[in-house]
Amino acid sequence: MDRRDFLRTCGTFIAAGAALSVGGALATKAKGRDGDVFWQIDPFACTQCGRCATDCVLPVSAVKCFHANKVCGYCDLCGGYYRPSVKDLNTAAENQMCPTGAITRKFVEEPYFEYTIDENLCNGCGKCVKGCTSFGNGSLFLQIQQDLCQNCNECEIAKVCPSDAIKRVSYDEAYKLKDHA
Amino acid sequence: MRRKIITLTSALYCLQGFAEARFPKPDFTSGYQYPEILHSVPMEQVWNVVDIVLLVAMMSAVVWAAYKKRSRAVIYSMSVISVLYYGFFRSGCVCSVGSIQNMILAMVDPTYNLSWYVLLLFLLPIIFAVLFGRVFCSGVCPLGALQELVNVKNFRISRAVSATLSVIPWIYLAFTILYAATRSQFLICRFDPFVGIFRLGGDFGMILFGVGLLILSVFVGRPFCQFLCPYGALLSVFSSLSWKKLDITKDTCINCALCGKSCPVDAIRSPQSSKVKEARSKGVNRIILFAVLLPLFVAAGSLFVGTNSDTLSLANKRVYLYEQLMEKEANPEMEESLEIETFNAMGGNVEELKTEVDEIKHQYSVYSYIIGALIGFVIGFKLLKLSLKRSRKTYEISSAKCTMCGKCFNYCPQNLKKK
């Protein structure tokens, strides 16, 4: 073995050693399913600024409005459904808060109405969430729909979120829901 | 997209800090039942396993194709699979290149939960690089594969230009470390030129940049891999020290120079000695000079970046918010940004923010000195390496640069003779 070969072998061992030690050090920090691999919005930190609708890399944001029925007051005058200045409580488009008409309302019994979100129409603008949080029980809230989310290594919305409400979560916490029994 | 629907009873979020409901829970008399709420689970879990298995399988295939078969066809088909699967189907995220940032976060932030998936994405290509060279770059990385597929002609860039440009990946890597370690942003993801193409949408400027790079890569082999990719820079270090080295042919080289002309990344070094003739002592003196200068480069780089750390720290959201608040205080007529509005609405305390910002700025200062030293070292080391002259008898592959595209195999007359 000549000098160059010897140096080369030493180099290989150093490189392999470096790779293994860095890998080993990182492996001690790795957590299987508990690793933070999904993005999710903390509904209690969200300020409904509206950037979720505009900053997602998808043409239509992966952020959708979720509805916690068990928190909802089933009000007739719903802050999430109607615009603030509404005169008549009817379902005419000009009265609705939602720009895409994704919220449908159904009469249950006097005086209660059930509200349902059509996720396919929702663009995550959070207008209804703002209305519901300001005037109602806060049963409407924004969440990242996990099967739509592209799971970017750095979430574009998280980057511009003014209240840092979007964080990495593990599989078991893929949603942060407001429902409770 | 396949949708799996489950009820996430385990994920019930407790109502901490949630104010007393304004309206009482309705008292239904008509026997109304609350609808069952279903949420789609993330689809990632299954595909993560497929990603890793495919990563190992494709890298092994490239090793076999390059070392045993000397076949470009296999490598080329791997590129097609990579672009289709990792690129268009998996839409390019998370990738090994970007995983550098997750590793940095895991190292500096004890609260960061690193997943095995990202760790393997980062480590496996490096392990292969230590063993066989830049196998990952060859036909497995979707970014490299995309450029490989559109490459037609190779106009040679002058050695001086390419040596200068090859410092850029290291500078890029250095700033990636700075911004990831201070939790400011993921630079590699932000300036990923091809992810927009894979997703058929995204930031317009970056797509334009990506298309520009692709047009360039028709005429110049892999401009992104050669002059931008920070992961490529990292792999090239491991590759240059690799266990096995690729050779163009098993038979004796006849010095026909065809392989050198075919290489898209100029990784094949000719046996001809340097055109500029000079005395040996002059060369030795130059090496000694650069070796002496190396610590000076390190110090200069460290000082240069380190003294500018305050400007660099503006990339951090919190620092920027603080600067905005200060500006607003000095000039109350200024329009209030959404960030300031939110900060005030949430009852933010400027004093607390200031302590937080001071801490971040301190981190910036420390890391700036470190990355400045790294940049200085790389520049000094490159100069030193340029002045090392080796005499070769035949055409040889520089394993640091070679991206294993396999083009040279088909140009070598010794290989063709066998077929």
CATH architecture of the largest domain in chain A: 2-Layer Sandwich
CATH class of the largest domain in chain A: Alpha Beta
Distance between the termini of chain A: 74 Å
Gyration radius of chain B (Cα, Å) is 27 Å
Helix content of chain A: 10-25%
> Helix count of chain B, per DSSP?
21
Task: Find the CATH topology of the largest domain in chain A.
Answer: Alpha-Beta Plaits
Q: What's the pLDDT, averaged over the residues of chain B?
A: 87
Cα-based radius of gyration of chain A, to the nearest Å? 24 Å
Write a concise synopsis of the structure shown:
Chain A is an alpha+beta fold and 181 residues long. Chain A has helices at 3-27, 51-55, 127-135, 156-160, and strands spanning 38-41, 63-67, 103-109, 112-117, 140-144, 166-169.
Give a description of the structure.
The longest helix of chain A has 25 residues, at 3-27. Chain A has two domains: 1-30; 38-173, Alpha-Beta Plaits (2-Layer Sandwich), CATH 3.30.70. In chain A, strand 3 (103-109) and strand 4 (112-117) form a beta hairpin. By secondary structure, chain A is an alpha+beta fold. Chain A is built from four helices and six strands; from the N terminus they run H-E-H-E-E-E-H-E-H-E. Chain B has two domains: 44-255, no CATH class; 281-385, no CATH class. Chain B has 21 helices and four strands. A two-stranded antiparallel sheet of chain B has the order 1-2. Chain B has a two-stranded antiparallel sheet with strand order 3-4. The two termini of chain B are 45 Å apart. Classes of the chains: A alpha+beta (181), B mainly alpha (419). At the A-B interface, helix 1 and strand 4 of A face strand 2, helix 3, helix 4, helix 13 and helix 18 of B.
